[in-house]
Amino acid sequence: MNYTDTLDWMFNKLPMYQRIGAAAYKADLNNTIQLLNLLDNPQNNFKSVHVAGTNGKGSVSHMLASVFQEAGFKTGLYTSPHLRDFRERIRINGEMIPEENVVQFIDTYKEKFEAMELSFFEMTVGMAFDYFSKEKIDIAIVEVGMGGRLDSTNLITPELSVITNIDFDHMKFLGDTRAKIAYEKAGIIKPGIPVVIGETHPETEQVFIDKAKECNSFICFADQIFDCDKIHIESNYVQQFDVWKNSELYMEALELPLLGNYQQKNLTTVMCALDLLRSKFNLTDDIIRDGIGRVIRNTHLMGRWQILNNDPLTIADTGHNVAGIKEVVLQLAEMNYERLHFVLGMVNDKDVDSVLQLLPHGAEYYFCKADIPRGLDANILAQKAFDMGLRGQVYESVSHAFRSAVNNAHFGDIVFVGGSNFTVAEVV
Fold it and tell me: What tens digit of pLDDT does each residue of 180-194 get?
């Protein structure tokens, strides 16, 4: 098979949660254990940092990877889902896994994978760990796919576990309270391995403390130790922060090219994680400063308050659950514009009504469906939105909706694209 044939096989033969939803979910690690045994347990051949959380884990993972790259380490980065190219999920020093490696891996194991009835995600984790091992990386930053306890990535023994925050998402699998969701995400805490919790919440704090105590693991809550104060935005493309640790200035005028106010929380988590890792890996202030400042250049992160165009100002963001959309809406409310053109597409297993309740009523909506089976029919989305008092038109595709929004926007307007990773993926 060539690369295109290989991707077709992967997407069609293996159950893929991003495309079909719940039918692809595996509620145990048996398949992954069997897979990694087949591959001679490559996850044991490199150091790692494990990152879980409801929101922000992608940004945190990319920032950590960028710092390790600046420190001279051969750095693997495993994230999900991808936006444009499957190979975005598996990178070394920012470079995607080559097409020929994907083809060779599938060609070697295809029959065994079919016999094992692997999911797409299980297979992808195996591919990443196998590639990292063969390329002899120094360290991998590994982002959890969903939850933590039963996630296929949860067979690594990391140097540090990081849990960014807890909010409501994937409740069908993770539970319907913050405490239940926290229990699943706390499953990445390993015996004797320190853990950083990004945000303190009264419903989840004790869950993490109890799990860390059970594992005899050092635990710290980043927001109780670190504080990142935004001091400046240079043009539209860089935020500056003074970073404080225990009320003492830790790092002055740290530049972050990731926009979006929510990155302040993510940066707090990252700084706490790096503080715990810095002596072990000799991460100096200059290395941390350069790594954070070059995160987009080093890792090619996309879709986080990404400015696509300045005339009209066009922004894409992958926030897709209630907590993520809440951050988007808060930030839009701070901005000055004449009219807001909102290109909106969602997936059918999210809490659509709760998201729609948050959206601004004065915007013009362009309802669409991303080109995946999980995509919510644009007419259903529009009807639900109309019931909430939102107004707009239905479009046959994301690209049609996006073109119409841009064409309709005038000077001083904003075009925003969001609602799901998959909607953003079709425009970035």
Answer: 999 999 999 999 999
